[in-house]
């Protein structure tokens, strides 16, 4: 059973919902299922736009550290899968809209930023990029998404500060374009997606590809040595200790990074 629920809505909008309780944490199967869902939506002419969201109280809590490989080679394989799935999302030729109605932490927030348009619920949940605090190195793919979407000041605060913020900070931090009221939230997101889907398809795809071309080129130019250095950070003693402390604090099975 796929960890991505697929629902088709009016106006050619396909709703993709991350569905891996309790936190929609990212691991190999979820990334594989996301890539497959995006491939299906890409080739389906009836799909004009995609809305990405998360089930329950989370958009996504980030990487599932309880299932994180412990050796460098396995981590590098996971990073490759992460890169490929996020490239598929970032380069998706049709409009993509993140519907953020719950916690978006670390890798979960990167997934939000990979979408063209990001709309948030005005509610009580947290956002942030806490990788540095738990001894995690950002994959090249994640770093380029951050650099593409955020100003240098916003990126520095989120990446180096490694804090978690209330959702009320999401606009200031550049995470979402708008915060919407609960009573009209989903209807507004779906309506916005349908509207974007009315644009001529080739014009949208060409403009989007040009906009992200430099970031994509930098991702594809990453060498094996660069990727290995990033993966090695995860295995440093202080990094391992930080993640063990995080798991003790939050409990296994909760969002961790």
Reconstruct the topology from this structure.
Layout: E1 4-9, E2 13-18, H1 28-43, E3 49-54, E4 58-60, H2 72-90, E5 96-100, E6 103-105, H3 107-113, E7 117-121, E8 126-128, H4 140-149, H5 152-161, E9 164-166, E10 178-180, H6 185-196, H7 201-220, H8 224-234, H9 237-250
Parallel strand pairs: 2-3, 3-5, 4-6, 5-7, 6-8, 7-10
Antiparallel strand pairs: 1-2, 8-9
Helix pairs in contact: 1-2, 2-4, 2-8, 4-7
- In terms of per-residue confidence, which ranges show pLDDT below 50 for 5 or more consecutive residues? 252-256
Output the strand order for the largest sheet: 1-2-3-5-7-10
CATH class: Alpha Beta
CATH topology: 2-enoyl-CoA Hydratase, Chain A, domain 1
The CATH homologous superfamily is termed 2-enoyl-CoA Hydratase, Chain A, domain 1
Proportion of residues in extended strands:
15-25%
Shape, principal axes of CA atoms: globular
Measured on Cα atoms, how large is the radius of gyration? 17 Å
- The number of helical segments is 9
Please summarize the sheet with the most strands: 6 strands, mixed
Named at the architecture level, the CATH assignment is Alpha-Beta Complex
Distance between the termini: 25 Å
Overall pLDDT = 92
Oligomer: single chain
Number of domains as seen in the coordinates: 1
Share of residues in helices: 40-55%
Gist of the model:
The protein is an alpha/beta fold and 257 residues long. 46% of the residues lie in helices and 17% in strands. It has one domain: Alpha-Beta Complex (2-enoyl-CoA Hydratase, Chain A, domain 1), CATH 3.90.226.10.
């Amino acid at each position: 059973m796929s960890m991505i629920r697929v629902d088709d809505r009016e106006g050619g909008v396909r709703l993709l919902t991350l569905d891996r309780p309790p936190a929609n944490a990212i691991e190999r199967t979820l990334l594989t299922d996301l890539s497959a869902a995006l491939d299906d939506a890409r080739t389906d002419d009836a799909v004009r736009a995609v809305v990405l969201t998360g089930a329950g109280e989370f958009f996504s809590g980030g990487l599932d550290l309880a299932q994180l490989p412990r050796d460098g080679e396995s981590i590098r394989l996971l990073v490759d899968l992460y890169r490929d799935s996020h490239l598929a999302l970032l380069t998706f030729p049709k409009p993509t809209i993140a519907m953020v109605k719950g916690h978006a932490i670390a890798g979960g927030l990167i997934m939000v930023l990979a979408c063209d348009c990001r709309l948030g619920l005005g509610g009580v949940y947290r956002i942030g990029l806490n990788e540095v605090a738990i001894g995690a190195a950002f994959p090249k793919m994640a770093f380029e998404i951050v650099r593409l979407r955020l100003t240098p000041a916003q990126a520095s605060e989120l990446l180096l500060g490694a804090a978690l913020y209330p959702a009320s900070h999401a606009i200031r931090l550049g995470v979402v374009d708008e915060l919407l009221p609960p009573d009209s939230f989903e209807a507004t997101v779906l309506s916005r997606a349908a509207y974007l889907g009315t644009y001529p398809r080739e014009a949208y795809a060409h403009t989007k590809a040009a906009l992200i071309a430099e970031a994509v080129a930098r991702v594809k130019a990453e060498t094996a040595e660069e990727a290995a250095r990033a993966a090695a950070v995860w295995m440093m003693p202080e990094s391992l200790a930080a993640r063990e402390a995080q798991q003790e604090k939050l409990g296994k099975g909760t969002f961790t990074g």
